[in-house]
Amino acid sequence: MAGAANRVLLDGEVRGAVRHGATPAGLPVVRFELGHHSTQTEAGAPMRVACRVPVVACGEAAPGEGALAAGDHVRVEGFLAAAARGGGLVIRARRIERLDREGRHGGAGGREED
């Protein structure tokens, strides 16, 4: 279904290694796992949420070498897609923004996409 809604906005912490590579066409690709913890409201009651989600950023959205490291707090904006291997879902990032420890925009270092 062309044009169907598929948007993700998720804050979290970079977990484990940030892997850099390139597509066969030479576009930069960055892969990492995002750990998310929050309290949401469902049916009027608080619900604790914790998950780990793989993230893939390609081309302009891919942060440069050294821009992200394990423990960095980020906001990822993108869409859900099937993972290339082994099933499951992955966030295909259109934008990755560094946050400070309190979740504010523009934490030290990193690259903020426009």
Please explain how this structure is put together.
There is one protein chain. By secondary structure, the chain is mainly beta. The chain has a single domain (8-99), classed as OB fold (Dihydrolipoamide Acetyltransferase, E2P), CATH 2.40.50.140. A hairpin with a 5-residue loop joins strand 1 (8-22) and strand 2 (28-42). Strands 1-2-3-5-4 form a five-stranded mixed β-barrel. The protein has no helices and five strands.
Provide the fold topology.
Blueprint: E1 8-22, E2 28-42, E3 45-58, E4 73-82, E5 89-99
Parallel strand pairs: 3-5
Antiparallel strand pairs: 1-2, 1-4, 2-3, 4-5
Features:
OB fold (Dihydrolipoamide Acetyltransferase, E2P); 0% helix; 5-stranded mixed β-barrel; 114 residues; globular; mainly beta
How many angstroms separate the termini? 28 Å
Query: How many structurally independent domains?
Result: 1
- Order of strands across the widest beta sheet? 1-2-3-5-4
Low-confidence segments = 107-114
Q: Biggest β-sheet: count, sense, barrel?
A: 5 strands, mixed, barrel
Level-2 CATH architecture: Beta Barrel
Structural class designation = mainly beta
Number of strands: 5
Q: What are the secondary-structure elements, in order, as H or E?
A: EEEEE
Oligomeric state of the chains present here: single chain
Short description:
With 114 residues, the protein is mainly beta. It has one domain: OB fold (Dihydrolipoamide Acetyltransferase, E2P), CATH 2.40.50.140. It has no helices and 5 strands.
